[in-house]
Structure formats: structure tokens, C-alpha cells
Amino acid sequence: MIAGTFRAASPRAFFGFVAGCALASVAGAVAAVTPAERGEAAVAAVDPFIGTGGEGHTFPGAVVPFGMVQLSPDTQLKTRKEGYGWAAGYRYDDRTIFGFSHTHFSGTGHSDLGDFLVMPTTGDVRLEPGDAAVPGSGYHSRFDHATEQAQPGYYAVTLDDYGVRAELTASARVGWHRYAFPEGKPAHVTLDLRPSMYDYPGKVSWARLRVRADGTITGMRETRGWAPGRQLYFALRFSQPLAGHALHNTEKDVPYKGFAPPAANAPELRAQIEGRQLVGVFDFASKGAPLVAKLAISPVDEDGAIANLDREAPGWDFDAVRTAARAQWAQALGVFEVAAPDATRKAFFTALYHTMMGPSLFMDADGRYRGPDNAVHAADGFTNYSTFSLWDTYRALHPLLTLIQPPQRTNDFVRSLLAARRHSAYGILPVWAFHGLETWCMIGYHAVPVIADAYMKGIRDYPLDEALAAMVASATYAPYGGLESYMKLGYVAIDREGEAASKTLEYAFDDWTIAQVARDMGKRDVARRFDERAGNWRHAFDAKTGFMRARKSDGRFREPFDPTASGYGTDYTEGNAWQYSWYVPHDVHGLIKALGGDGKLVAKLDAVFDAKVDPKLFEHMEDITGLIGWYAHGNEPSHHVAYLYDYAGQPWRTQERLKQIVDSQYHARPDGLAGNDDLGQMSAWYAFTTLGFYPVAPASNEYAIGRPFVERATLHLPNGKTFTVRASPLDDAHPYVGSVTLNGKPLATSALRHEDIVAGGELAFTMQAQPNKAWATSRDARPGRRIGL
């Protein structure tokens, strides 16, 4: 996700035109384009390498929108202690590839997955991956970025040590490989069930590897990583017959070579092996024709993986699958037409691409999936998803998806969350779940605002009473995260629970979203109860210091107090007082009053952005990156802060800060992300901000207006209508909003309603050189006023 520096030169319009088409100026007429042309132009603008360097933690490999398979190269096999930088398996600075595994996270600050690593080799067989610093020490290979190619749904690279051209593509449940081997050398494919992105090599609890009579290879592994007890199954087929194979358990060093006698209880098998450290090597004749491999995964069993393979990948046409994957991305990305400089278009569409990596499908083709109880269930009329990074994604990612994806996608997300709660031993919604299992990572009960935001926007194809009951159950489960003291005292007590200030603040926001839904459903008692709880943020506010702080059970603030202290052992989660004291998105005007008025809020915001901060202060906190003063754009608690000037009647200050953030935190290169993309949240922030508005308080149906960073963007809404944002003139010489119109009528407020967007129309900004200090300054013209905040 990147953004170029804006320039005064005449920009080019890219409204759906494929490469080579004539370009029209933004001011001129733009020829009508088909959805296919629009989609192709969007796909062509994406650069999957953005975020693969620095701390972006994205991967460049092949995936379809929200797909279960994320097939990508792994450039290091690291232990948990070393693995933070390789959370996605790939870092752009590396020059060695160890293989291509089938599951990856996009942009997380925690590592796991990396299932079923496949590596094509020639010559002598090596069972160990080896040391990247020592060529030839294992089956890894050197590579050069000059031979890499990455597009939505496709990745290719040349493995220099073997002369193998490797290509990858994917469907929802199947990863496709095509390998062009040099002629005249023994050709092998190594399938390693040992590596992962977490605690390699000690992560695997148990694994199984089988060669079936028809040449299909199947197996599974259970891992004890971030989500202990995770099970995943696979089925693998090759387009050429096996010339030979060898199955090894390297833990015992007992090789199983050749066609072993079939097991007594499985006469269809050529060979099988079980253990914790399994690797298989499969030999092929070098005939010159590329070898195609297709590997399906299943959360249920090997038969499910075979069925997924049969249904999704019946043939061997790699190019047809690649074309289909590209078409899916064209449809998903083609919801937008964007006129902007090249770097900004690349930034925007790459950000949009990254917002559709998760949540990811987690269900076999027959509707079966594995739940948090590690049991198999059957979906009843919905598509099951997992990989919910909710502490990150409830803020902007899920609100963005309600605009750019068909409502059924969000309905399925909600149904998946509700199903997970039904299968949970705790009776609450997921906190941070992947592959069906709970990790208990981060804080809050942020499945609640995801459901509330969907409900308030009219996306309601799920059991409504069950949804509200699930929200309330999650907010009242006393053993979780200090909720017992929160419900008793009105705050999380720091002498009973760590990071108590952050938890009090985030619980209060989640409670407010419950009240929103309950009020709309006519559940007045529930609404009153959670409206009252939504005010609990006041118990964390210290009027003496002006910061949010943690209290002890006796009501006193914890001493001593250091507003610069961050992380574990402090009052805060992944932040400090300077970063977390703004977290009252549902009651910003209440916060302004508590601080002493508009001027006090603005002065304290300026103190955040203008502070001189030594980055070494956060060396112990990997996630606090992208610093502008105390503002940390690389981590989520800061994401709404620049928009708060709007609430104090100074929208021009929001405009200034947004330009400062976009220009300094996003760059047109692999390390162009200031911090972890966190399953698309960083990218969703950029997408919204580029359009000129942002959902400060999800479930409010309101967006705070900032300033656009594109000349024109047209959103083709799921309901068939279009919503267009225009800005003129847009360059470095005109950074401020002079006036705004909505459907041709002056818009006097710095707030935009969700209903205004989905009704279709046009939001037009007139930009100017100097700030307009008269627009949207009155109290009634500020965000939050129209929703009673």
C-alpha cells in the first residue's frame, strides 16, 4: 500500500482503460468502458510486492479474493523468536526461496501457517532446507527479483540453483504449480510437512503422508502454534506419473523408499508414513513438458481434500485457472474507476487488493468445516469464513467491505461469527480466530462492532435475536479480560488485569455499538444498560493529567504514571497514554468537554503530532511504527486520530494531518507500508482516506470527512448505483478543502452519512491553496452531532 507525492503536473485518467488505450484528461470527457475493461485496468494497477519489505508483512503469491489457499514463496524458515519479520513467509530483501507453501497471513504481526511446503529441484536429493547463507546446503535455491512476476492470482520466479521456472496460481481451495525443468537432469518435487511460520521445527504435533494407488498424495498435519491443535488436510496430484518416490521421517531417520507394501487396513495405498517430521520426495522423468501440480486443502479430512480437488480442479489447464483467478480479481477490484497519477492509482488498487485477503474461506466444497471445538460441522445455508483479525479490522476493513462487496459476503461473515460462538465452549464470539480456532490475541470483543456495523447498515440476513444475544454474551462473560471488574466497578482494575486502561476504553466502544443495535430492535432495557456502560470511558479519564489511565480496585489511579510507557506491564495495549487517550470514537464530543473545550483538544492533538520522539523508546514494541511525534500510524489505535480535528470545528487541521500521514507513511516501493497491514486494516485506512472520508465510529453510519487524494473515483455499488468523488484542482499547491457539494448542493458539515453513499450520487470537493476556516466549524456541522454523540 503506497501513495505517491502529489505533483502539479497534469494527471492522467485511467478509467478502465487497458494498457495502450488513449488517456483522457480528468477535466475532459471520459469514454464509457465495460465492466471487464474497468476490472482489467484495476488489476493491472496492482503491485503485490508492496508491503513485502519493511514491516508490511504481506506476501506476493497467488490467491483469489477471500480464498482458503494463499500460495506463496517462503524465503526463510525461522523460529518463533526470529519469525516476526517473516510472518508472511516472504521478505523482499531475501535472495533465497525454500519453497512454496499453501497458507499465509497477509500483514499480521504474529506468525503461523505456511502449510505443505512444495519445492521443485533437480540433481541430488536433499531432505533438509539448509542454510540460506550456504548455497547447496539444502533444497533451497537462490533467485533474482528480475525473474519474479507477481499479479493478482499469479506469481512466477526462476529458481537459479536448479534452472526451474516456477509459476503459481490458485482457486479458492486449490493451489496450482507449473514447473519447467531443464531437460536431461533428474527432476524432483519435495513436499515438506515440517516447516511453518511459528516455532519451526518443533511445531508439528503429528502428520501423515500417503501415496495412493492412483498416484494421488494425501496427508495432514496437526500443529501447536498460535492456535494449538490446528488440523489441516491436503490432496496432491501431478500431471505426470511418478517415476519414483521416497517418504521419510527425519525425526527417526527411518526412510520409506519405493513402493512399500500397502497397509492392511488401506489396500488402496502404495505407501504411507506417520510421525512428526515428515518429508516426501517425488521423482519425474524430464520430458521437456512442464509439470503441473495441484494441491487442495481441507479443514476436515483427506477425503474432503480429494473432493475439493475433484470439484475445483478437474483438469490440467494451468492457464485457464490463472485466467479465472484474474477474472475474479477484476470483478472485485473493478468496483472502482480511479483517475489519479500513476503512483496513487497503484497505491489505491494495491490497498484494495490487500483488503480482500481476509477473512478467508474455511469450508470444504460440500459445506463442512471445523469449528473452535475442533469438531466438524456442516454449514446451514451460509459460506463459512475464518481468519478474523478483529482488533484491527473492525475499524475500517469491515466497514469498507460493506461498501465494496455484495451484502451476502458480510452476511456470511456474521453467520460465521455466530456459528463460531455456537461451537465455542465459552459461549462468546471470536476474539482473533483463524482456521476455526481461537487464539485469544489482542483485547476487546470486536466481533460485536462488526455485527453492529452490518446491522445498522441494513445488512441483516442472519438470525437477528441470536446476533444480539451473542453480542451481549460476549460483553458479559466475566472471566474474559477483566470484564468481571469492568461490570462491577465500571472499569477494568489494573491490579486484577493488565493493560486495563485500553481494555476499559475498547469495551466502552463495543458496548455503545450494542446499544445502537438494541435501540433499533426495540430492546430498550438492553439499550439503556449498554448506553450506561458506553460511558465507562470516563472512569479512565484523569482530569489532572488529561490522559486516560488505569485505576486500581480501590478507585485510585495507578502510580507512578509515565505517559510515555507502553506495552506489556503498563496501562495500555500496544501503545501509551499519548496514543490511547483518544480512544472514545463514540463520544468524541464528551472527550472534548472533559479536556476543557475545542481549543484544549486541538492543542493536545498538536502535541501528539509535533512531539520530538526518539523511536528507540519503542524498540521493545515491534508494532509501534510509523511515528509522527507520538502518532503511530503503523498501529491501529492511532488510525482515527487525525480526523478528530473535525470534531473540534477545525477540519482544515484534519486535512493538513492527513496529507502529512499519506506523504510520509506510504511509498512506492516494497517497504512502502509503515507497519503491519493487519489483514487489510492499514490498506482500508488508505482506501477510505484517499476517497476523502473515514468511519471513525463503526455502527454510527457516519463518516468524518477529510480530504481526497484522487481527482476522481467512482464506486460501482453492489445495489447497481454509483457514487463518485471529485476533487479539483488537486495538487500540492491546493491542499485544502474550499467547499464541498453533495449531488450539487452545498454540504455544510464535515460528516457524510452511509445512506448518502449507497443512494448514489456525487461528492465534489473544490480544493484551494489556503485553509477555509469558515467551512464546517459550527457545532451542528461537526461529525457526531447528527447521531447524538
From TrEMBL:
**A Pfam family this chain is assigned to:** Glyco_hydro_92N
Q: Name one GO cellular component term.
A: cytosol
Q: Which keywords label this protein? A: Hydrolase, Signal
Give yes or no: UniProt keyword Plastid.
no
Q: Which InterPro entries match?
A: 6-hairpin_glycosidase_sf, GH-type_carb-bd, GH92_a_mannosidase_put, GH92_N, Glyco_hydro_92, PNGase
Keyword match Signal: yes
Signal peptide position in this chain? 1-24
Highest taxon of source: Bacteria
Q: Which residues form the Glycosyl hydrolase family domain?
A: 305-768
All copies of the Glycosyl hydrolase family 92 N-terminal domain together span: 46-298
Q: Which GO terms describe its biological process?
A: carbohydrate metabolic process; glycoprotein catabolic process
Q: Which GO terms describe its molecular function?
A: carbohydrate binding; peptide-N4-(N-acetyl-beta-glucosaminyl)asparagine amidase activity
Q: What is this protein called?
A: GH92 family glycosyl hydrolase
Q: Which organism is it from?
A: Tahibacter soli
